[in-house]
Automatic annotation (TrEMBL):
Matches recorded under Gene3D superfamilies: MetI-like
Protein name: ABC transporter permease
Taxon lineage: Bacteria, Pseudomonadati, Pseudomonadota, Alphaproteobacteria, Rhodospirillales
Cellular component per GO, a single term: plasma membrane
TM annotation in the entry: 31-52, 95-118, 130-150, 156-173, 212-237, 262-283
Broad class of where this protein is predominantly found: membrane
GO biological process: peptide transport; protein transport; transmembrane transport
Keywords: Cell membrane, Membrane, Peptide transport, Protein transport, Transmembrane, Transmembrane helix, Transport
Pfam families found in the cross-reference section: BPD_transp_1, OppC_N
Annotated organism of origin: Ferrovibrio terrae
Amino acid sequence: MSQLKIASFAGAAVLPKATPGIYLFLRKLGFYLSLGYLVFLVLLAIFAPWIAPHTPTLQNPSDVLLPADGNYLLGTDDLGRDVFSRLIWGAPLTLYGSILAVLVACCIGLPFGLIAGFSGGWIDAAISRTVDTMLSFPAIVLAIGVTGVLGVGQTNSMIAIGIVFSPTIARLVRGQTLIGREALYVDAARCFGASSTRLIVRHILPNAIQPVIVQVTLLLATALLAEASLSFLGLGVQPPQPSWGAMLARAYHYMEIAPSQMYAPGIAILVTALSFNTLGENLRVILDPTRRR
């Protein structure tokens, strides 16, 4: 009887703890708020030409560094351009840049991760060492170096960021492939004569997609910050096109006399990156059954 009690207590000790109700509420609230904000941002980017009250590149020398008023909702910058209109027009450029960078990262990282995990041997070793080498450098420093090779501009800078982020995808996919190739259903398909390509595309890749979806959402936030950093340094979106990072760079020079010019792009970058991160963390919980309690 005593042994039975000890065994029951031992079994109870390893049960996962239930998530507190307040935490579940806050997690769901954060998920819906972040999702709602991102949907709003996408709609804002689509309808920017009809929402923006002024042309974002129109300069008004007589209205330089004006505070917020009825005509200029967020004031004007050092060239007399409406900050509110530039903020709205910066949304599609920011989303385009972040999505392009993540697409490039997936197009490079997915195949290399699958090849490394499925092939093994010297191919896996070569790809893994390359991935480790790239991950050893600070991402923004490596992105600046690649941008210097490709040339300045938003498209080139986002391709550079995508190249820098591709090792993260490759490492994740390689790990999932190593697990998948040892699964019983993969062995069964191999016994029935399935080719390596069929095994990868039909059986291994679908099971590796879920963690990739979560990682992609988190990378969107990182790509947003990287795009803002490169634009701040003058390597991303080029004038006179509006970019949140470029707006911060111009407002930085007038921080003492017009500090409010930094608030709008800074808050937009912060809230958007935080929303992507919150969405990614919630997707991780939704897609992973062990985290749902």
